[in-house]
């Protein structure tokens, strides 16, 4: 029997909801200087979110380094580098499974000490192993990485790293690993994996909107009407937002102090709307974010809805941010330390996931910001060749290689929560010889990677029981 399992692996940040601390914040921390890059929040000083709270390694949890291949080319493994990994043999005995966690775009230092997978390991007497992703945490193939080294950072090389690690040592990455290396892996659990790459991604905004609507209907109505009046205003209806007649006055009331070209649907105007929408509301843990922001919104003041929202932004410590700010940060050593630079490269080179306003619900306007706000950074960061057409081609190549939502793997357990803003890009309907577990938000705070933490509702407990049961089925299935 094959004994390898890839579990707890995907390409977007999963934070354990146990006693350990997340490595990248799921929501903005108002006490820190942070920047939002493609769905994740990063500390601009280069630190990770865990601070000094990493649980100490015990006698049963050891950190190791593994000599990993640089290129995985036809010429063998001529060049190597030190990749971090962790091993926990607390429950394991020879002949039992090995559960391998493939970390994504974060520092994996504490993954071995957290997550609900301990319960699965206890049940199946499995060894736990975590492999840190190249170019994240402290697993860098090169010293002082720069844009010129980015060609060494692809999901295909990350999968080859895992395959080489498995051969030697005995979310998306989980599903793709089972697809591309079926003889190395018995089964896989993909938690919140958005396996279908996409350039224009309004689905993230739509789910954020749905979470706000289900959390606080009055708060949602206020946002819908406020952004609706602002969208009408910039499109020519100068009487849609009360006393304001010029864009300059509107911007002043919003306390947005950066330069904006209001003449048409310009990139700077779109960036302003994205900032007004995403800085206070976007979060992978959307429920708690919606609750806290709606409460702060109720505590705001102003003579009209625009001034009210501007004061809310200011009281939240938000006074404007530019594309140049993000671009400058991504060129710093701190951006590589936190993983922000690496994640920006992967989105431009493979995945897209560029957020845009949602034309269906229109909570933050129906056409207030496009995917080009984020997509345009690719050319600024990585060169003139990274036009929209080129990046769209790279996204198409990724889907052609892995299959998108029509992934042709088998014995994969896909897990999603309907409050996860990434779930629209994941496998949420049964496909082939796989299992799908969808946790509805109606019964649980089914947010990003929530199945990795201790259950907070009966629905989540049921989902985790299903995952545990299906692991056992696949472990004993000769077709896997």
Summarize the structure.
InterPro entries: AB_hydrolase_fold, Peptidase_S28, Ser_carbopepase_S28_SKS. The protein has 480 residues and is α/β, with parallel strands linked by helices. Helix content is 37%, strand content 13%.
Question: Can you tag this structure with a few keywords?
Answer:
Rossmann fold, two-stranded antiparallel sheet, 13% strand, 12 strands, alpha/beta, disordered N terminus, 2 domains, 16 helices, eight-stranded mixed sheet, 480 residues
How far the N terminus sits from the C terminus, by CA atoms, comes to 10 Å
Low-confidence stretches: 1-25, 50-59
Shape: globular
**Share of residues in strands:** 5-15%
- CATH superfamily of the largest domain, by name, is Alpha/Beta hydrolase fold, catalytic domain
**What average pLDDT do the residues reach?**
84
Largest sheet: 8 strands, mixed
* Count of discrete alpha- or pi-helical segments spanning 4 or more residues: 16
H/E series: EEEEEEHEHHEEHHHHHHHHHEHHHEEH
CATH fold category name of the largest domain:
Rossmann fold
Give the domain tally: 2
């Amino acid at each position: 029997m094959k004994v390898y399992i890839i579990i707890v692996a995907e390409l977007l940040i999963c934070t354990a909801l146990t006693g350990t601390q997340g490595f990248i914040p799921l929501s903005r921390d108002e006490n820190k200087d942070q920047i939002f890059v493609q769905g994740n929040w990063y500390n601009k000083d280069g630190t990770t979110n865990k601070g000094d709270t990493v649980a100490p390694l015990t006698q049963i949890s050891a950190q190791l380094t593994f000599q990993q291949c640089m290129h995985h080319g036809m010429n063998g493994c001529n060049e190597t580098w030190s990749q971090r990994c962790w091993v926990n043999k607390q429950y394991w005995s020879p002949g039992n499974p090995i559960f391998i966690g493939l970390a994504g775009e974060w520092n994996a230092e504490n993954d071995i000490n957290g997550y609900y997978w301990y319960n699965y390991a206890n049940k199946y007497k499995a060894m736990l192993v975590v492999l840190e992703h190249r170019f994240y945490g402290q697993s860098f193939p090169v010293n002082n990485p720069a844009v010129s080294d980015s060609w060494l950072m692809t999901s295909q090389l990350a999968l080859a790293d895992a395959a080489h690690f498995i051969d030697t040592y005995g979310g998306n990455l989980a599903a793709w690993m089972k697809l591309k290396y079926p003889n190395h892996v018995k089964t896989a659990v993909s938690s919140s994996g958005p396996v279908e790459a996409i350039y224009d991604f309004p689905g993230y905004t739509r789910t954020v909107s749905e979470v706000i609507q289900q959390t606080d209907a009055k708060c949602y109505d206020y946002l819908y009407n406020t952004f609706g009046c602002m969208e009408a205003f910039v499109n020519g209806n100068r009487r849609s937002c009360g006393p304001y007649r010029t864009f300059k006055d509107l911007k002043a009331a919003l306390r947005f102090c950066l330069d904006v070209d209001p003449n048409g649907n310009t990139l700077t105007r779109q960036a302003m709307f994205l900032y007004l929408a995403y800085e206070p509301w976007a979060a992978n843990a959307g429920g708690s974010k919606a609750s806290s922001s709606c409460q702060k919104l109720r505590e705001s003041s102003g003579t009209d809805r625009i001034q009210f929202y501007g004061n809310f932004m200011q009281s939240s410590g938000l006074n404007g941010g530019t594309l140049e700010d993000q671009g400058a940060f991504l060129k710093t050593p701190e951006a590589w330390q936190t993983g922000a630079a690496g994640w920006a490269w992967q989105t431009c080179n493979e995945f897209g996931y560029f957020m845009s306003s949602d034309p269906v619900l229109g909570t933050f306007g129906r056409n207030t910001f496009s995917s080009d706000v984020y997509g345009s950074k690719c050319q600024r960061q990585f060169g003139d060749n990274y036009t929209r057409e080129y990046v769209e081609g790279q996204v198409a190549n990724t889907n052609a290689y892995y299959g998108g939502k029509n992934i042709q793997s088998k014995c994969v357990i896909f897990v999603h929560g309907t409050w996860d803003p990434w779930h629209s890009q994941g496998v949420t309907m049964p496909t082939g010889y796989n299992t799908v577990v969808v946790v509805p938000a109606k019964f649980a705070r089914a947010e990003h990677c929530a199945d990795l933490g201790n259950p907070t509702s009966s629905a989540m407990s049921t989902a985790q029981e299903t995952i545990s049961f299906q692991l056992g089925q696949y472990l004993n299935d000769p077709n896997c």
